[in-house]
Write a structure and sequence with these properties.
single chain
């Protein structure tokens, strides 16, 4: 039983990292594969493998989860997901776990790739949701320029991405303009960076 149960109609911050903080993407092919998994496994109907799904050109309108935003980093990932189907998040994350098989098979390794079961936090207020969206959208910019092996939904929000998997309406619909959200997110990011720097200074 998870400490944070998944309830229909609620949003959750989902995250995990590589075991021993190891890389989960070794090159762009790995990054593309994980992104493709997020995209193609988000359907109520079972699709088998990604390879099998390449022959099925019909896209299902019935999704397991609503993807609000994401960030894929070299050794960890963040997702904000809405659950609107019973057990949707659990089933979706179970399917994403197949990436470990792909990675181990490609690099001739065994064992776990991720650090245990994925972590989750219930987003229990609208304010939390807004700030969490900024944190996830810009997570690969916390230390400055985004790493080469990273990808986030920030480009989707700004209209610079053609291959879109998110539904940003719940976030962007609360701002008068896209620029207003952009300014909010960047300001929120600076607040996060300042807090992290203060926490380091307070460490003994």
């Amino acid at each position: 039983m998870r400490k944070v149960p998944f309830v229909e109609g609620e949003y959750y911050h989902i995250y995990n990292r590589g075991v021993d903080k190891r890389s989960i993407f070794e090159d762009r092919k790995d990054l593309k594969r994980f992104f493709q998994s997020i995209k193609e496994f988000n359907t109520i109907e079972p699709i088998g493998s990604i390879f099998e799904n390449t022959f099925n050109k019909e896209e299902s309108s019935k999704k397991l989860v609503e993807i609000i935003c994401y960030c894929l980093n070299p050794n960890h990932f963040h997702l904000i997901l809405g659950q609107f189907v019973e057990n949707g998040i659990s089933e979706f994350m179970k399917r994403l776990g197949g990436y470990t098989w792909y990675f181990n098979n490609r690099y001739k390794r065994n064992g776990a790739l991720f650090q245990g079961v994925f972590k989750s936090s219930h987003i229990n207020s609208n304010e939390y949701l807004l700030h969490a969206s900024a944190y996830v959208n810009l997570n690969n910019r916390l230390k400055g320029k985004p790493p080469v092996l990273s990808k986030s939904s920030w480009d989707e929000y700004l209209g610079r991405e053609n291959d879109c998997i998110c539904n940003p309406d719940i976030i962007l619909g609360q701002f008068n303009t896209l620029k207003e959200y952009q300014e909010f997110a960047l300001s929120s990011l600076q607040d996060i960076i300042r807090r992290k720097e203060m926490e380091k200074e307070l460490e003994f």
